[in-house]
Amino acid sequence: MRTLTIGTTEISDRSAAYVIAEIGHNHGGDLATAKALFTAAAEAGASAVKLQKRDNRELFTKEVLNKSYTGRNSYGATYGEHREALEFGESEYRHLAAFAAKLGIDFFTTAFDEVSLDFVMGLGLPAIKITSGDLTNTPLLEAAGRTGVPMIVSSGGASLSDVVTAVNALDGVGARFGLLQCTATYPAQAEQLNLHVIDTYRRLFPNTVIGYSGHDVLKSVLVSAYTLGARIIERHFTLDKCARGSDHHFSQTPVEMKKMVEDLDAVRAALGSPVKRQIPEETPALAKMSKTLVVRGSHPAGTVVEPGMLAAKTSGRPGIRPAALAEVLGARLARDVDDEHVLRLSDLIYTTL
To answer: Which of the listed CATH numbers 3.30.1490.100, 3.90.1210.10, 1.20.1420.30, 1.10.10.10 matches domain 280-349?
Structure first.
């Protein structure tokens, strides 16, 4: 059975969706904003909040860091200054970890490089996220896998061959991980989502928990993903879709995330059991709708029951279902019956030769 445990939550095919509020850098480098996002996510019913951790000098070339970076979403004159303005250090991370614990919500982060992975490991967080861009970064995958900490790996922009290679690498180091279908467009359009990849992953990786990381803005997609078997659901999260930053416009607000969690819980309840059976609540409706065999005309005791003597009608009373007609034919009436009498087994005598 596929399972993945993060913190105290076991994720499996039978479980509720493990909902990740992906804050990323939507906090704008401000600790108070990050705490407000944590609180809002917890109140919306999310299972976890997630940030992103980069060691920018390890991750980017000097040329990239020194490029001019201006515009509405910029937090610095160069791309390097912009990225540094959005990073939290150890004190902020430890403060947020303690704050999340008080809220009762899991907290972890994406490690974009091995220096950041070491940083994250020093915090004792319950999981590690690996971004789509690092699915083919085998050294980082294996380093994260060797930690023994549960991992969540996104697969946006990947080929199936890329995914199989990554899964084999993770399996090779004994990693515990979930795999997310993802489309790396922002926002993603319906025709780009390919939710049936969830089916493919579930078939190819029967021991791996599968999920969906969504950058779409469609309300029905996440419920559909859960129905297909995604048990980890990740959505970007913001307090204000119009705030400065490139991710806010396709992120969910607290109201939207609360509704999503409610919808996911409802669809889990609706999926129910694979066993078809009558439930007690159906009894009143069935009493009104179901048909039983009733007698046409009046007949004396001893009459042999023939097809023309019976009709299937709704009487609101218990009786013999029309499906049993063949078993009734040929029996004799045990008593006199009137027109539209609801036939019962006690009205019949079966003779054997």
So the answer is: 3.90.1210.10
